[in-house]
Amino acid sequence: MLRIAPSVLSADFGALAEAVGEVASEADWLHVDVMDGHFVPNLTIGPPVVRSLRRHTGLFLDCHLMVTDPGGLLEAFRDAGADGCTVHVEVGDTARLLARARSLGMRAGVAVNPETPFEAVEPFLGQVDLVLCMTVHPGFGGQRFMEEVVPKIALVRRALDEARLVDVVLQVDGGIDEQTAPAVVAAGARMLVAGSAVFGAERPWEAVAAIRRAGAAVLPGRAAPEVRVARRSPGAG
Ligand code: DX5
Ligand code: ZN
Description:
The chain is an alpha/beta fold. The protein has one domain: Alpha-Beta Barrel (TIM Barrel). 32% of the residues lie in helices and 18% in strands. It is built from 9 helices and 8 strands. It has helices at 16-23, 47-56, 74-80, 94-103, 118-121, 150-162, 181-187, 196-199, 204-216, and strands at residues 3-6, 29-35, 60-66, 84-88, 107-112, 130-134, 169-173, 191-194. Strand 7 (169-173), helix 7 (181-187) and strand 8 (191-194) form a beta-alpha-beta unit. The radius of gyration is 19 Å and the shape is globular. Bound molecules: D-xylitol-5-phosphate and zinc ion. Zinc ion binds next to strand 2.
């Protein structure tokens, strides 16, 4: 199964409720990009906005914390209605942060920047509900997909499969659209975050469906498309 999480970072912040309504029928989760102006050079959403979003949707609110000190914020996000929080492995103290998120009743994720190697997240695979491989440098929507990250996605997939961690979601975020989705799904991603490709589209719900179709086409075990051979009458040609 392939799931799609539209990122509201690329939506109109002055009309977030409408934006959420535009994708609600097609989206599996809603991805919320939290930036502190320190871990990344941009400043976005905090718990008050998550609280407002919560009032407008029953979708799983997947909070991606691009912040230097997530520990002090986890409880506030939980109280605001976040369903899951993902912390970056680069900020350190990862085991404690993951345990804290879970003890607050949220799903816990670990994110890894493009240049951070697989080995940095490997020790935490048994302690997470989600692994997020960034395919852009975090901070802004609308950047170019970094295909050099694809081998790392495959390493995470293999490690999860070998450890039979079947419930851990392998998520990819950054530059995902119809063109780039097949490569990350083929490498093992099972949840795709997409911002500009969704909210930059005239019909965001159609964009979600199109990305899902493009990615799902390369899921393993999927039957090859049926090849229809025209029947020819005996003796013809
Ligand atoms: C980037 C964010 C992404 C962003 C993706 O720092 O983590 O979630 O919204 O946007 P696109 O899909 O436009 O790359
Ligand atoms: Zn994100």
